[in-house]
Design goal:
alpha+beta, two-stranded antiparallel sheet
C-alpha cells in the first residue's frame, strides 16, 4: 500500500454535494480537476432546471448523460479526423508512385 501512495497523490473533489477523496497520478491531477468542473457545472445546470420538480438522482443521471454524449461526439470526431488524415497520406503516396 505504501508503494501506491508513492506513485499517487491524494486529492479531494466535490461533485453533487459529495466529497470524493481519491488517489491519482500527479500528472493526471489536472484531468480530474477539469472533470470535476465539468461535472459540477453540468449538474448545476440541471439542478437549476429541475430541483424541486425531479429527484436528485434524475438530475445526476441527466448530467451524466450529457457528459457521456459530449464524450462520444468528441471521440467520434477525433476518430474521423485521424481516419481522414491517414486516407490523405495514402492518397498522396499513391499519387507519387503513379507519377
Amino acid at each position: 500500500m505504501a508503494e501506491v501512495n508513492k506513485e499517487k497523490q491524494h486529492i479531494s473533489l466535490n461533485i453533487c454535494d459529495e466529497k470524493l477523496d481519491i488517489y491519482v497520478k500527479a500528472d493526471e491531477e489536472s484531468f480530474y480537476r477539469d472533470a470535476e468542473k465539468l461535472a459540477r457545472g453540468t449538474y448545476g445546470k440541471y439542478a437549476e432546471l429541475f430541483r424541486g420538480r425531479r429527484s436528485e438522482r434524475f438530475i445526476a443521471a441527466t448530467a451524466l448523460l450529457e457528459i457521456g454524449v459530449k464524450y462520444q461526439m468528441e471521440h467520434a470526431s477525433k476518430s474521423t479526423d485521424s481516419y481522414n488524415d491517414l486516407l490523405e497520406r495514402l492518397t498522396s503516396d499513391i499519387d507519387e508512385v503513379l507519377k
